[in-house]
Structure formats: C-alpha cells, structure tokens
C-alpha cells in the first residue's frame, strides 16, 4: 500500500487547521511534521507545542521527523504532544538501537532516517529493530528542493535488503517528489511518499493529493 504523506512544512501556518482539512478530505492517513533545530540542519521549524496543536486539529497519524541533535532528550516530549511515530537520523544517534527502542517503549513507532550521502548499509544492524526507514532524497533543511537522482538507487537497494530479511518495514522518502517522478519512486519500492510544496503550493491541494494517489496506485502494478 502506497501512502501520500503531506508535509506541513510547506503549509500556511496562519490557517493550518484548514490546510490539514483540505488534504484530509483527499483521503490521506498521515501528516509529516519536520522538526529542525538550526544545528543538525540550517533551519529552525517547530517543537512540541505545534505538534500538540496539530494533534487537536486532526486524528490522522502524526509522523514526526526529528532533524535535531540529541534526539533522546526530546523524544518523550514529542510522544506526549501526540506524535504517533518518530524518525531519527542515523547521523545524530550515537546509540541508534537504544534510541529506536526508547521511541517504541513510549508507545510510538520508531523510524530511522538516512541523509542522501549516507549508505544504506549503515542500517544493516537495525533493520529488524526499526518500524520504518526514511530515505532523504534532498539534503535536509529546506522544502522545495530538487530530487537527488541517486535516491532511486538507494530505494532499490533498501528494498532488496528488506526482501532478503523477509521484513515488511515501509520505505518512506522525503524530498523533491512530484507527479513527474512519483511513479518511478513507487516502482523502485517506496511506500510512503512525503511531499509538501507540490501539494500545499498547488492551486488545489485536495485535487493534487488525489492525483498523486492515482499515479501511485497505477505504479504499484509495475515494479522494477
């Protein structure tokens, strides 16, 4: 099952509840919330209070992506704020196994994230611990960037690894997704497609999500 996961980073925060309602009307089941600290990435975005406000506005699954240093220190706050699942970067976690298990011990699903230049092999020892993997297909920090082409190769490589393990963990991708490359990414093995500007900066976010869902469904019939 392929999911389109709108990223609220590109939404209009002055009318965030309305923006969420528009994509919810298209049938999405998850929202992506990017948390940036200005240290691990060159931008600052939101914290637990915004997650808590979003939780009040929707019953959708809140997929919180921590692009921060020292994630263990803040994970409990985000779970308390209403996050259903939290992903952390392999590059920031000295004890990645422990961090993933911390999220799970607090009742959340635990995801691990790789930057574009970090090889998939870095996850070999935690693929049976993580609940999902997020592959960044742009360098993290800002929305609206162009897709990095070798991201497709990494999706295929991770898909082969999970098949060899007999694992079912979803592959999430984030960055530079559009209607032009969506089908290729799904055929390569991506399951959860995060996209922000292509949805919220379109004339009709509801229609855009519906069209992306259609393209994704058709692409699942042909895997490469």
Outline the structure in words.
The chain is 36% helix and 19% strand. The chain is an alpha/beta fold and 224 residues long. The two termini are 16 Å apart. It is built from eight helices and eight strands; from the N terminus they run E-H-E-H-E-H-E-H-E-E-H-E-H-E-H-H. It has an eight-stranded parallel beta sheet. The mean pLDDT is 95. It has a single domain, classed as Aldolase class I (TIM Barrel, Alpha-Beta Barrel), CATH 3.20.20.
Q: What is this entry, summarized?
A:
By secondary structure, the protein is an alpha/beta fold. Helices cover 36% and strands 19% of the residues.
Helicity, as a percent range: 25-40%
The main sheet comes to: 8 strands, parallel
| CATH topology-level fold name | TIM Barrel
The CATH homology group name: Aldolase class I
**What's the CATH class, please?**
Alpha Beta
Q: Mind telling me the C-alpha Rg?
A: 16 Å
Report the portion of residues in β strands: 15-25%
Q: Strands of the biggest beta sheet: in what spatial order?
A: 1-8-7-6-5-4-3-2
Arithmetic mean pLDDT:
95
Q: How many structural domains are formed by the residues?
A: 1
Series of H and E elements: EHEHEHEHEEHEHEHH
**CATH architectural group:** Alpha-Beta Barrel
Contiguous helical run count: 8
The number of E-state strands comes to 8
